[in-house]
Structure formats: C-alpha cells, structure tokens
Amino acid sequence: MNPVESLKRQLTRRSFLGLSSTCLGAAALNSLLATDSLAQSGKSAGGLVDLPHFAPKAKRVIYLFQSGGPSQHELWDYKPKLKDMVGEDLPPSVRGNQRVTAMTSGQLSFPLVPSIYGFEQHGQSGAWVSELMPHTAKIVDDLAFIKTMHTEAINHDPGITFFQTGAQLAGRPSIGAWLDYGLGSMNEDLPAFVAMVSIGSGNGGQPLYDRLWGSGFLPTKHQGVKFLASGDPVLYLSNPPGVNSLTRRRFLDDLARLNELTQEEYGDPETNTRISQYEMAYRMQTSVPELNDLSDESQATLDSYGPDVLKPGSFARNCLLARRLAERDVRFIQLFHRGWDQHTRLPGGIRNQALDVDQPQAALVQDLKERGLLDDTLVVWGGEFGRSVYCQGKFTEEVYGRDHHPRCFTMWMAGGGIKPGVTHGETDDFSYNIVKDPVHVHDLHATILHLLGVDHTRLTFHYQGRDFRLTDVHGRIVEPILA
Question: S-S: 442 plus which of 35, 399, 453, 475, CB 3.0-4.6 Å?
Fold first, then answer.
C-alpha cells in the first residue's frame, strides 16, 4: 500500500479514535441515554435525522400478504352479468392484446366462468363480499377496498418480489427494510421488522425466499427477522447446553471487543451490524419467549381468532402474534400465507384458504380497534395478482380453475389514516380491465409511506452511482382512500 494512504487510514481510524477517546465516551453515554429514553418514551431510535417528513397517521404496518394470487371473482369483485354468459368465449375486444401465461396461451377457447359462491352487500358501506368471507363481511365498514390494483408481473416470483421491493428482479431492499432504514425502531428488545409464514390448507403453494424480507443493498441490520413455526421462534435463541445467561453475556462482551477492533481497523459498516445483531439476539432471549406466551390472553380473545389460534405456524396464531407485536411497537409486521395458486379445482381450494384467513384477519382488525391500536396501525391485505375470468383447463360450471391475471384485482386496507367503509376503483363486467381509478404497485407503496409520514420521493439510498427508492421513479398517493 502507498505509505501516504496507509498514514491516512491510520489517522482517520485508529489515531482518531485514540486522540478523541473522551469525545467518544461522551457519544457512547449519549447513545445509552437515548436507548433508555426510547424505552420510556416510545420514540424511534436510528433512522434518518430528517424523518418523518411530516406528521404520520400510522406508526406501524401489519401486511397480510396472500401468496399465490387470490381470486377476486370468488372473494371481493362481484360480477352478476357473468351468470348469463356461462361458457361463452371471452370477447376479443375485452382481452385485447394482453398477454396470458404459457399455461393457457395454447387453449383454443377462453370460456367465461362465474363464481359458484354467492355475494351479498354488508354494512352501511354496502360492500359486496363473498359468502366465503363471513367474518370479514362484518368489518367492511372499517375497510377500504381497492378494486383496481394492477401489476406488471404475470408470474409468481417477480410478482411477489415486486410487491415486497418495488422491483421484479431480486436484489432491492424490502419495504420493511426501507422503513427501518428511514424511520428506525420503536422497540429496543424486538426487531423493527418481523416476518412470519403460514401454509394454507390446500397445498404449500409458491416458495417464499428470505430475500423477500431482506435488506438488499441497504446495511444488513435493516433486514427482517423471520419467526419460525416450531422450535425456537428465532434461530439459536436458546443457550447451548451448559451455557447460562451470565456466560453468554461475558462471551458477547468479549466478542464485541474483538469486533470493535475489526471495525477500527477496516471501518466496515457490516461489523457494526454484527455487533448490534448479537446484542439484539441477547435481548430477544427474554422478549421473544414473553411475546409467544399466550397465557395472558383471555379465552374470549383466543376464541375470536378461531380454532387454529394455538396451532404453531397457523395464520390464526400469526395474526394474534401480529397484534402482540403491534402492542410492542414493532414497526413492520409481515404475514405471508401460502397456497392461493388455484389453477385447477379452484372452488374447493379457495374455500379452504378462506377458512384459514377469514376469521383471524377479521379478529385482528377488531382486536386492534378495541385496544385503540387501529388508529395508528395500518393493515394491508392482498396478493401478487388476481385470477382470470376465463377457465383454465377443462371447463365445468362446478369444478374449474383460473389463470394469473395482473390487469386488475382487489386488495383492502384498514386503520392508520385510511378512510373506512369505502370502495375505490371500478373494473369492467369481467373484472378483466380497469374502468376507473387504477392503482399500481408503486402507488400502493407511495400511499403506505405517506401514511407513515414519509415522502416516497425523498426516502432514497445512493448505490452504484444513483439514488434508489422503493417507488423507483413512479408512484402517486391514492388520495381518495385517505381519511
């Protein structure tokens, strides 16, 4: 190495640290005082100094992601005219030049098939909801339905990745990581970003990768922590045999000193991440078992979430854990529920999926509301795309399948600054095209960030010569659904 460069490195790291030890001691004291203040005040630690950009409506997000593409035809988007067109071919004027997947592109016809399930209007808002969602139907006046979500991806992996990261290709930070980076943590004893995965009753569905809650090019300390369904909720949470808490504490202290020496030598920010993550893991040895202990929940609360609430890894249990995480001010809580990919034999498969999620998700919204948490907790429900109005494969009126359909599908939101009891957007008689008020994935992300007090155009990270953001160069706030 050039000796001048070597001297610069020593001056900017080791010598600086040695010459300014008094200042660093004061900084360390200030950090400890800030941590103590956070525990007492509930304010955020970390994050960017200029965030939030304005007063937020929501403090935290619970995102109920339904992996596989739930059919809007069977759940939310009632199309009565289809009953008079059973078996007819989808009109070319409706399909236009829109692409279809390889799974149906070879079909000689695209027969229209209405849902076999009935719909009714509910609540003062008069929202149409399928008979498959009777519990959710009772809370429609707390929800804002978006009927005109659309995306650019037609296959699962890019579709799911797009909703999590704002890009179809892997490598970008997930939305929870962006929020941790920008807004910081509100709880020193739990991660700011937690992910949980449940498997539907029908089948395992599409695989979900850890990168979906990853930090991408952001520092790795912002990545989500996955809670597991069995064993330790977090890997290596328990001490190894023969190691008690005191021994582990001494080990971590010594390890931290070694890592600090490495940081002084190389200045790698990932070393700081390693130190902070070891400390978080130590604190979670107490906080996570307490979180998972449901003995303090009333029987009425457990019953409201449904019969699977005590089953580890179930959507019901994860919904209850999501409420408990929200109570503890975890910033971003993501629940993935797999198994919505019904290409064939859809009626039976979607009935099972609806049984998995209907009661727990309704209970979650109601539980948050009763505890005063819904006002500042944003709840989001939806998948990566919808399903086609035409039948995939052999057509019968009772047993049918549907292909992927990214052009329009339904999501809903509640709480955290969302206007309750509204329906936004309109699709055509086939739920195939958008008639009014389209909402893109970037628009959804821009709206979520806005509710958290973040201007989506100003939350950026410089990487490989340009400023990146969750919404790329797009995104508009969906004003009509805001309270």
Answer: 475
pLDDT digits (tens, 9 = 90+) for 128-141: 999 999 999 999 99
- The answer to whether 365 touches 142, Cβ cutoff 8 Å, is yes
Q: Which residues contact 413 (CB under 8 A, 6 or more apart)?
A: 143, 144, 146, 378, 379, 380, 381, 481
Q: Is 184 helix (H, G, I), strand (E, B) or coil?
A: coil
CATH number of 49-236+297-481: 3.40.720
| Residue 352 phi, psi (nearest 5) | -65, -40
pTM across the whole model: 0.89
Q: What are phi and psi of 403, to 5 degrees?
A: -90, 175
Helix (H) / strand (E) element for 63: namely: strand 60-66
Measured distance CA(74)–CA(119) in Å, rounded: 9
CA 369 – CA 151 distance, rounded (Å): 31
Residues 60 and 166: their CA atoms lie apart, in Å, by 19
CA pair distance 257, 267, nearest whole angstrom: 14
* Nearest in space to 476 (alpha carbons), one of 435, 448, 434: 448
What is the per-residue pLDDT across 44-54, written as a single tens digit (0 to 9) for each? 788 999 999 99
- Angle (deg, nearest 10), helices 269-292 and 315-327: 110
Q: Which tokens in the block code for residue 68? A: 């596989």
DSSP 8-state class, residue 312: T
